[in-house]
Each structure stands twice: as structure tokens, then as C-alpha cells.
Design brief:
By secondary structure, the protein is an all-alpha fold. The chain has three domains: 3-59, no CATH class; 70-141, no CATH class; 147-203. The protein has helices at residues 18-22, 28-38, 46-59, 92-102, 110-118, 124-140, 150-161, 167-178, 192-203; strands at 3-4, 9-10. Helix 2 (28-38) crosses helix 3 (46-59). The chain is elongated, with a radius of gyration of 37 Å. Residues 67-75 have low confidence and may be disordered. It comes from Longibaculum muris. InterPro entries: DUF6434. Residues 76-133 form the DUF6434 domain.
Length: 204
């Protein structure tokens, strides 16, 4: 084992054992040169190369530098009994399956995509059932209107409670409501403005 006089450290060669090698500091360029001289891969950062050299000094064998390949689950064929895979991604294969089972109107809507991603391990038959359930809920669920659309909310609720009334009457009640402090939601009591309006007209 040769000693580098300038740096008081062993020269990096095959005579070193890994423990001695790891006790001293070597530049990455020196590590790469050693790898080239001894047929070791030079890919990777300094830590990777250091581990590779230490392994070589101990065993005389070359540690592969190949990185593990991430395996992607490939769905060869989908049927109702197939299990929904982890990290589900919408693909043409999945789209074709659902269109075949559900119909041409099928589309990957956001609620259904969320269900698929949250239910890995369940069957595709479960997914089909969930799709129909989501569609049914959309039909029966009352649309929530943001606060900025208070007028729409008020008019909608007015007609739900007063079938047969006119839009003009609904607007009259809305104008009365928004002129008052507090919330602007429809209440049965708002109809009193219609009675007052009729009285005013009769006096005219």
C-alpha cells in the first residue's frame, strides 16, 4: 500500500481494504479514475461511486450501477371482476371498457375519477355501480348556488313555494328583501309586500 506523501493518505488502488479507503477523503475525480482503471461504472454521484469502490475492494466484484426500474402495472384485459389498480389513471382502454358496459354517453367526470382513485382493490363492477349512483345523485341533488348568485337562489325558492305566481311578483319580493338588513333568502313573510302593493294599486 503506497502512501501519498503530500496528503499523508494511502494511494487509491486495489491493495486498499474498504475500511481504510472510507477513512480518507478522495476527490470525485480520483474515484472516477480508479473506476476507469478497474472497469467499474462511473455513473452516479460521489456517494454512489464511493459505495461501488468499497464493495469492489472488499469482494473484487463490480456492483451494478443500474437503477431499479419502476414497474408499471399494465391492464391487459378488463372485465367486471378485474380489480381497480393502484394510482388509477384514465386511459383509452378504461374508457372503452366503461363505454361498452355503460353506454356511449359515458365520460370520466371528476366525481367518478375521484371514486376510482380512492377505491383501488374494488372490482370494476363496483365501479360501474358507483357510476350509476353518482349519476343518480346528480339528478336529485339540489344545485348549490354561490352567494354571488343570491338573486337566482331567491327566485328559485320563491317559485318552489309559490307555483302560479309571476316573475314580476317574484322580483317585487326580491327587491323588498334586498332592501332589508340581514340575509337575503326567501321567506313566506316576504309575500306581504305583494299584499301591500295590491292595496296601493287599489287606492290609485
Amino acid at each position: 500500500m503506497m502512501i501519498d506523501d503530500n496528503q499523508q493518505r494511502p494511494q487509491l488502488d486495489k491493495s486498499l481494504d474498504s475500511q481504510t479507503f472510507l477513512n480518507y477523503y478522495y476527490l470525485k475525480e480520483e474515484l472516477v479514475d480508479f473506476c476507469k482503471q478497474n472497469g467499474l461504472p462511473t455513473l452516479g454521484n460521489k456517494v454512489d461511486i464511493t459505495k461501488r469502490i468499497a464493495y469492489f475492494l472488499d469482494t473484487g466484484e463490480i456492483l451494478s450501477s443500474s437503477k431499479p426500474v419502476n414497474k408499471t402495472i399494465v391492464v391487459e384485459k378488463i372485465c367486471e371482476e378485474s380489480l381497480i389498480e393502484e394510482n388509477f389513471k384514465c386511459s383509452e382502454k378504461h374508457r372503452a371498457f366503461f363505454k361498452e358496459k355503460i353506454g356511449k354517453s359515458f365520460s370520466f367526470q371528476v366525481p367518478f375519477q375521484k371514486w376510482l382513485k380512492a377505491n383501488a382493490g374494488k372490482t370494476y363492477q363496483d365501479a360501474i355501480n358507483a357510476y350509476y349512483q353518482i349519476q343518480e345523485e346528480k339528478k336529485t341533488k339540489k344545485t348549490t348556488i354561490d352567494k354571488q348568485f343570491e338573486y337566482n337562489t331567491y327566485i328559485r325558492d320563491f317559485f318552489n313555494d309559490n307555483q302560479g305566481k309571476t316573475l314580476q311578483e317574484a322580483i317585487l319580493c326580491w327587491k323588498y328583501k334586498k332592501s332589508k338588513a340581514g340575509h337575503h333568502q326567501y321567506e313566506k313573510d316576504d309575500l306581504k309586500v305583494l299584499i301591500k302593493n295590491e292595496e296601493d294599486i287599489s287606492f290609485d
